[in-house]
Amino acid sequence: MRVFILSDQSLFRLGVENLLRRETGLEVVGCEVDIGQAPGCIKELLPDVVIVNDADVSCDPTSAALRILKECAVPKIIWLNLQNNTMCIYCGEQQVVKEVKDLVRAIEQPHAV
Q1: Are 38 and 76 in contact (CB under 8 A)?
Q2: What is the homologous superfamily of the domain 2-108 according to CATH?
Q3: Fewer CB atoms inside 10 A, N or C side of the chain?
Q4: Higher pLDDT residue, 52 or 58?
Q5: Residues 6+ apart with CB under 8 A from 72
Q6: What is the average per-residue pLDDT within 89-110?
Q7: What is the Cα–Cα distance from 35 to 64, expressed in whole angstroms?
């Protein structure tokens, strides 16, 4: 899995990068400090996952995630909050909905992290 880290805080970027580099099967392919520059880097590096620092005050999480998902077609964004040890996962998956059961299946389907 190719990982891209987005944060304006160097301690967050370096800390997460160092932790992930120890994990087998993960490759940190890049980092960026500016949300405005991130889509270009993401399009170029083609990561499977983008990890974003929830404490960044420079951007609104939902609008930034939607922008990245729309512009870059990245499969997953993980918004990581180290203050309360939580994460919010945005998936760029699109499915056709023909019946109510399709919607129910999407609601019930767990997303593996």
Answers
A1: no
A2: Response regulator (3.40.50.2300)
A3: C
A4: 52
A5: 39, 42, 43, 50
A6: 74
A7: 8
**Over the chain, what HEC string results?**
CEEEEECCCHHHHHHHHHHHHCCCCCEEEEEECCCCCHHHHHHHHCCCEEEEECCCCCCCHHHHHHHHHHHHCCCEEEEEECCCCEEEEEECCCCCCCCHHHHHHHHHCCCCC
Phi, psi at residue 26, to the nearest 5°? Answer: -115, 140
Residue 20, judged by CB atoms within 10 A of its CB (0-12, 13-18, 19+), counts as middle
Bridge partners of 80, per DSSP, are 53, 87
Give the burial class of 61: count Cβ atoms within 10 A of its Cβ; 0-12 exposed, 13-18 middle, 19 or more buried: middle
Task: Name the pTM for this structure.
Answer: 0.80
Domain boundaries, the chain: 2-108
